[in-house]
Write a structure and sequence with these properties.
It is a single chain. The chain has a domain of 285 residues: Alpha-Beta Barrel (TIM Barrel). Helices cover 40% and strands 16% of the residues. The protein is built from 15 helices and 15 strands. An 8-stranded parallel β-barrel has the order 2-3-4-5-6-8-11-12, surrounded by 6 helices. A 3-stranded mixed β-sheet has the order 7-9-10, covered by helices on one side. It starts with 18 loop residues before the first strand and ends with a strand. The structure holds beta-D-fucopyranose. The site of beta-D-fucopyranose has 12 residues, from loops. Beta-D-fucopyranose binds next to loops.
Length: 414
């Protein structure tokens, strides 16, 4: 249930004018360790990158060297006047061998937390963002009999550095993790494999889903006992909409893809909404979006309205768990388009808030152009990075989002 603490000041929004947000509203950007740090050599993803799977054509390598350059990244966000940064700690670095906890790595991540504060950024720390240690994957991953206990041990090890962190996200997009699990099971089946390589994703594996929910609840109990953090997790939302007459199919798609993970957040302190695009559900299920000139560099439909749909769905299914938008953004080379997309997404967010939905922050994906899980081409960043010199160059969208943060208002309802 919602706990009494200052980050939970509820915004009072019922106005047809642009709405002033509470000064606790988080305006920030997000990254994950594997996509930015570089050389995450003890992770399962590093091993996958070595295995020449067609859906992972490129490797992460040095990524954008944020392992060493995090202060520079955070300084740029702070200078733009953003007030929050969501980043992750990497299990594969903290526990590179089962039971072998690295104090030096915990110290490293504690320095990141302190640096965020020095840069004027409220930290939100993610404990698991797609990658696990390779030893965990080899032992069976999320469906191993002791998976929850292994994750809980890791969370116990990290808790001391999180003691004063206001926001902790236990697991990023557990429904995507369950999709990866399903995909890995299917790799040996030629027909399903060819469907996957042509862009379609399998349904989330329900067995992995149940275990991920247990792992989240175990982590939540530990963090509530040992830290002051508001605890939640973040759910990948497809902002499904029904083709005419397909409401039942829509409910079925939501039931498999999102709702169990949102229901699991009913007693969380917040739920992270992550939305990029919207997908239509037809008579035979989810309709794959066709190629279209407006598609983004990930091949997704250009749908800034997805954020409003996702926020409303999360609110309805959780029964009113406070929301933080933990990811929203666009893969594009055209920064003007990034600004246009984000402005429209924020207008939809404002309309949802005007309807009484309690949203505590907006964290844009991503702070930096980074490794997009197998490919470098889709660039989501507010900051460009030269991958040879690691030079950071802020894009106009960073200053633009900073302006939004400074104004601290969202457009009112139309
Ligand atoms: C989300 C992931 C994030 C990034 C964006 C584009 O599914 O959480 O790491 O890849 O998509």
């Amino acid at each position: 249930m919602l706990r009494e603490r200052s980050v939970f000041e509820s915004p009072t929004i019922r106005s047809d004018r642009p709405m002033k947000l509470p000064n606790t509203f988080l305006w920030g950007a997000a990254t994950s360790p594997h996509q930015t740090e570089g050389n995450n050599v003890n992770s399962d993803w590093w091993a996958l990158e070595s295995s020449a799977l067609p859906m992972i054509p490129e490797r992460s390598g040095d990524a954008v060297d944020s392992y060493h350059r995090y202060r520079e990244d955070m300084t740029l966000l702070g200078q733009a006047r953003l007030n929050a940064y969501r980043f992750g700690v990497e299990w594969a670095r903290i526990e590179p061998e089962r039971g072998q906890i690295s104090q030096a790595m915990l110290d490293h991540y504690r320095r990141m937390i302190d640096t965020a504060r020095e840069c004027g950024l409220t930290p939100m720390v993610t404990l698991h963002h797609f990658t696990s240690p390779q030893w965990f994957a080899e032992a069976g991953g999320w469906v191993a009999p002791d998976a929850v206990e292994r994750f809980a041990d890791y969370v116990r090890a990290v808790a001391p550095i999180l003691v004063d962190v206001p926001w902790v996200c236990t697991i990023n997009e557990p429904n995507m993790v369950a999709i990866f699990a399903a995909a890995q099971r299917l790799v040996s089946d030629p027909e399903s494999f060819s469907a996957m390589t042509s862009g379609a994703m399998p349904d989330p594996d329900p067995d992995s889903g149940k275990i991920l929910i247990d792992a989240h609840h175990a982590a939540r109990a530990i963090l509530r006992a040992e830290t002051d953090a508001a605890v939640g997790w973040s759910v990948a939302q497809q902002a499904f909409v029904a083709a005419p007459g397909c409401e039942e199919q829509l409910a079925a798609a939501n039931h498999i893809w999102e709702d169990p993970y949102l229901i699991a957040a009913r007693d969380d302190d917040f739920v992270g909404v992550q939305a990029y695009t919207s997908r239509t559900v037809g008579p035979d299920g989810i309709i794959e979006h066709p190629e279209h000139p407006d598609n983004t560099l990930t091949g997704w439909a250009y749908r800034p309205d997805a954020l409003g749909i996702a926020v409303r769905h999360a609110w309805e299914v959780t029964g009113g768990t406070p929301i933080v938008v933990t990811e929203n953004g666009i893969a594009t080379d055209d920064d003007t388009k990034r600004i246009a997309y984000t402005a429209e997404a924020l207008a939809h967010l404002g309309q949802a808030m005007a309807d009484g939905i309690d949203v505590r922050g907006y964290l844009h994906w991503s702070a930096l152009d980074n490794y997009e899980w197998g490919r470098w081409r889709p660039t989501f960043g507010l900051i460009a990075v030269d991958r040879r010199t690691f030079t950071r160059t802020p894009k106009p969208s960073l200053a633009w989002l900073g302006e939004m943060a400074r104004g601290n208002t969202l457009p009112g309802p139309r």
